[in-house]
Design brief:
alpha+beta, 5-stranded mixed β-sheet, about 25% helix, about 25% strand
Length: about 650
């Protein structure tokens, strides 16, 4: 049987509108208010449409400059642009000012792309940042693949892609926006965007909204330090020049030698000095975890064959506090990358897969320092890297393992001292027996394959440790997978739980790199299908983050699997970012889809959790069903908005 995801079309009261929402005249104040409110969104749009050939740093400045120059000098008329009048009724709440400013941003970005020199030389109206290179944080393989796909498109093609998949405009609306922006052949641009080969997740905004394409969340690195110093000598007084040169040459400390790839120390204080002293690192004994009141990272002993290497530990601490310009730094969302407030705890120091790795824990974060084993202490930063991951509140099940090494598609974990065995399982093949994974004397596992969501999802590796199910989502801490009600999730051991996760695992690609702590899947309803089509399971899958905000929720329906595909991936009915749906604070759910039976009849199916007493549908399909299940005959393309009534009389909206 064929399934099709329902996409209810209801007015979005918080998101920007289309060109149809613009009236005849836009005030300067109205345009300014729209620009200020949606500035990050507009800059992201300009950044994605601008040509990528001039480098990420210049494209960031150009995107900000394009947006900041879009305000009209006076009241502006929309007449002559071929735009309908402002909508009324239920759509009147959509902001017309945003659509007007978005059109000006799009025009400017496309015009800049057509110009041979789209970033003017100084003096320039662009924002100026002297002495720093600014660029967005690097993403993963999916973001890189999407960026390469966008760079292969023409300017109008990129604009069509962004309007359709980031702004969520329909094809007719996208064509009207492109025409108003001066694109000569909008249909060809839309077709080009449709043909773009993109990774999974790029069509539902999850990749386009990632930090890789956020010009407002930037990393800073210095420009040419030598040239800046030469210019400084020419204009500064002799005393200031001496101070600057002394700082750049590292005169206040021991120089580059003992600190490896660290940047020069600019300030000193007692707490900072204590954090840089390897002799003051906290080291837990090998048996402390047995009597610890709380089993978390603070109970982990220090392991590895280099825990007594003071030179290595000093380098690692110095680079953590002051990573040099050549040191890649990564962090999960919401994780600060600054130095420790005081002495940290040493978890591991040793050579793993020809890389020297040091793991620290400071109570809030786990920090991984790595350097090439054959080039220790290089002052230019070659081969050194620092990764940060937030781990506050970790205990027992969420403090079972840390990623210590990634090489050639494999991972090695450092396991908690209370973990005695590990087993590699395939989530997509729950009937297949697991394979034991060796844990060495230093607590590190043998190589474990990492999930590869960019490829066809036929396998998803995971580890069972002490009954807990863990999987890699591209971060230092693996995510724990659970099954059951939001307020009391359990282990993934029962056949129904394993089957549910087998049909959900491939959806985990959408939450990679989001700082996910745990993912729970909950079957909130089971519905008989019309026409004797069997029964379908409704599941709500929620990914919780270490930082609290940023959770992601997905509702899906798992209809009877096709013959020969017992664990086919379910159909996603809705996605939501943030909110409390399907979480411990609001353990409720309501979702619906359009479904086609074997006879060819379309149906609107909807289901709610046990607290739902009735379901009402409005829009293209209108009706009401008592109880928490609904099945109405429908036609292909029908759209509806779902509302539910709880047993306590309160209302509930659909997930998303």
């Amino acid at each position: 049987m064929k399934q099709q995801q329902a996409t209810p079309q209801r007015p979005d009261r918080t998101s920007p509108g289309s060109l149809e929402d613009i009236g005849d005249v836009i005030d300067v104040e109205q345009a300014e208010a729209a620009l200020v409110e949606h500035y990050p969104r507009l800059v992201r749009l300009a950044y994605l449409v601008l040509p990528p050939g001039q480098g990420r740093s210049r494209r960031v400045l150009a995107a900000h400059g394009v947006v900041q120059r879009t305000l009209p000098r006076q009241r502006s008329s929309t007449r002559g642009l071929g735009l309908p009048a402002q909508r009324v009724g239920t759509d009147a709440a959509i902001d017309p000012g945003y659509a007007f400013v978005r059109l000006r941003v799009l025009r400017a970005a496309l015009a800049a792309g057509r110009s041979r020199r789209w970033l003017p030389v100084p003096p320039s109206p662009l924002p100026q940042v002297w002495g720093l290179r600014l660029f967005p944080r690097s993403g993963g393989a999916d973001e890189l693949a999407l960026d390469q796909a966008l760079s292969a498109l023409s300017g109008p093609g990129r604009a069509a892609f962004v309007l359709r998949d980031l702004e969520r405009l329909s094809a007719p609306e996208t064509r009207r926006v492109l025409e108003a922006a001066g694109v000569a052949q909008p249909r060809e641009a839309l077709d080009e965007a449709e043909r773009a080969v993109t990774p999974a997740g790029s069509r539902d905004r999850s990749l386009l909204e990632s930090p890789e394409f956020d010009p407002c969340a930037l990393q800073a690195r210095p420009t040419d330090l030598i040239r800046r110093r030469q210019h400084g000598r020419a204009v500064l007084t002799a005393g200031v020049a001496v101070l600057v040169c002394g700082a750049l040459l590292g005169l206040p400390g021991d120089g580059w030698g003992p600190d490896g790839a660290a940047a020069p120390p600019y300030a000193r204080n007692a707490a900072a000095e204590a954090a840089l002293d390897p002799g003051k690192l906290a080291v837990t004994s090998a048996t402390a975890w047995k009597d610890a009141a709380r089993q978390d990272f603070s109970a982990w002993p220090a392991r590895g064959d280099r825990i007594h290497d003071k030179a290595l530990l000093r380098r690692a601490l110095a680079v953590w506090a002051r990573p040099g310009a050549g040191v890649p730094v990564s962090a999960t969302p919401g994780t600060p990358t600054g130095p420790a407030a005081g002495p940290a705890q040493l978890l591991f120091a040793g050579v793993v897969d020809h890389v020297v790795v040091v793991l620290f824990h400071d109570g809030l974060r786990v920090v991984r320092y790595a350097e090439a084993a054959d080039g220790e202490g290089q002052s230019d930063g070659t081969g050194a890297a620092v990764d940060f991951a937030r781990t506050d509140g970790a205990a027992a099940d969420s403090a079972s393992a840390l990623v210590v090494s990634r090489t050639q598609g494999n991972i090695r974990y450092l396991t908690a001292p209370w973990v005695k065995s590990a087993q590699l399982v395939d989530l997509v093949q729950p009937a297949t027996a697991g394979r034991p994974v060796r844990i060495g004397a230093n607590g590190t596992t043998g190589p474990v394959p990492t999930p590869r969501p960019a490829e066809k999802c036929t396998t998803w590796p995971a580890l069972r440790m002490g009954g807990h199910l863990l999987t890699d989502l591209g971060e230092l801490t693996p995510a724990r997978l659970t099954y059951g009600t939001p307020r009391k999730p359990g282990k993934v051991t029962a056949p129904r739980a394993r089957t549910a996760w087998a049909r959900t695992a491939c959806q985990l690609a959408a939450v990679r790199g989001q700082g996910v702590r745990a993912v729970n899947s909950w079957e909130f309803a089971r519905q008989p299908l019309p026409g004797g089509g069997g029964s379908a399971a409704w599941l709500c899958t929620r990914a919780e983050t270490w930082r609290g905000p940023g959770s992601r929720t997905m509702a899906q329906i798992q209809t009877p699997a096709p013959a020969g595909q017992p664990y086919a991936t379910g159909t996603v009915a809705a996605r939501a970012e943030g909110g409390t749906s399907c979480g411990p604070r609001a353990p409720r759910a309501l979702a619906g889809v359009l479904w086609k039976s074997a006879s060819g009849q379309w149906w609107l199916l909807a289901a709610g959790s046990s607290q739902v007493s009735s379901i009402t549908t409005t829009g293209g399909l209108r009706g009401q069903a008592p109880g928490r299940l609904l099945a109405f005959p429908a036609k292909a393309g029908d759209r509806a908005e779902l509302r539910g009534r709880l047993v306590n009389g309160k209302g509930i909206g659909a997930v998303g």
